[in-house]
Automatic annotation (TrEMBL):
Keyword Transmembrane carried by entry: yes
Coiled coil: none
Major location category of this protein: membrane
Topology in the lipid bilayer: Multi-pass membrane protein
Pfam families xref list: T2SSF
Locations listed in the record: Cell membrane
Protein name: Type II secretion system F family protein
Residue spans crossing the bilayer: 6-22, 109-128, 134-151, 287-311
Alphabetized PANTHER family for the sequence: INTEGRAL MEMBRANE PROTEIN-RELATED, PILUS ASSEMBLE PROTEIN
Domain Type II secretion system protein GspF: 176-298
């Protein structure tokens, strides 16, 4: 490795270390209100009492405990830079992630730091072999950090899609179970409680949340409306609206639930047919661009070789 670049790398690491040490000095670090009162509230129950303590089950627990002030500062700067607070909160709720916006921004900072670290390691290897352009490697590190931040946002979107698919797959079965319970003579709240106790899944967790809000004093209709707003699925919104309308107007609930289950299954069948049609078109890509050229080469290559031999 070039001694100049080795010295620059060592100097950069030394400078970063000195800055981190200086920021943690007591006379330079002004504690926030949460940090001042948190030692006196640790023995109280509830997740919101001490918001500064991260989840001990997280794989980044040690890193977050060590660099928590810097991570929270980076999360606030990232929030001001990216924005989209409402969209992120909605997607967190739709993904079923019980986590605040600041925790998500901290995860984005960690993903960006991981991408930057991988790119930095690749850059150091390239510099040690003498085959790297320093300016290009710096740009590579910056791009890797940005891609790491954006990858966490993309991963959240994929989490939302996977959960929505699970909700749609569970909805017809839950609707028919509710219809059976209501037809057997149980009330709506009792039927919801029976289904929530006898089944497992994402929709069951949402029903348990509806029941918890009902037991806390909220009306069942408002809890169902909140379920529809929280999930954002059209089919689940129709399901919750149908339950709410049946409860308000006294229409036969079992018939409404059976009809909704049939409609959801029909919609799922149409979606499968559409996905099959799209996959059929996608299957033509390897056939046209891979199989067909190879077939043409195998068909014409022996003839071309024979013509060359005859001509020779």
């Amino acid at each position: 490795m070039n001694p100049m670049w080795l010295g620059a790398a060592l100097g950069a690491f030394l400078g970063i270390g000195l800055v981190l040490v200086a920021r943690r000095l007591p006379f330079l670090h002004r504690p926030s209100a949460d940090e001042r009162i948190s030692p006196y509230l640790r023995d109280l129950e509830g997740p919101e009492v001490f918001a500064g303590a991260p989840d001990s089950g997280s794989p980044f627990f040690a890193v977050r405990r060590l660099f928590e002030p810097s991570l929270r500062g980076g999360a606030r700067r990232l929030e001001r830079l990216l924005g989209g607070t409402t969209s992120v909160r909605k997607r967190l709720a739709r993904a079923g992630i019980d986590r605040g916006l600041e925790e998500f921004r901290i995860e984005q900072v960690l993903w960006g730091a991981a991408g930057f670290g991988i790119a930095l390691l690749i850059s150091l290897v390239a510099l040690s072999s003498g085959s790297g352009n320093p300016v290009g490697l710096i740009i590579l590190c910056a791009v890797a950090a940005v891609l790491g931040v954006l990858s966490r946002d993309t991963h959240l979107t994929s989490q939302v899609r996977r959960r929505e698919r699970r909700l749609l797959a569970e909805l017809p079965t839950v609707a028919e179970m509710l219809a059976l319970a209501v037809a057997a003579g149980e009330g709506p709240a009792a039927a919801l409680d029976r289904v929530a106790r006898s089944s497992r899944g994402e929709l069951t967790k949402e029903l348990q949340r509806v029941l918890a809000e009902t037991r806390a004093g909220e009306s069942l209709v408002r809890s169902l409306d909140a379920l529809a707003d929280r999930t954002g699925l059209v089919a689940l919104s129709r399901f919750a609206d149908g339950l709410a309308v049946a409860l308000e107007r006294g229409t036969p609930l079992a018939d409404v639930l059976r009809a909704q289950a049939g409609d959801i299954r029909e919609a799922n069948r149409r979606e499968l047919i559409e996905n099959g049609a799209r996959r059929e078109v996608a299957m033509m890509v390897p056939v046209v661009f891979l199989v067909l050229p190879v077939t043409v080469v195998f068909a014409f290559f022996p003839g071309a070789v024979g013509i060359r031999l005859i001509a020779g």
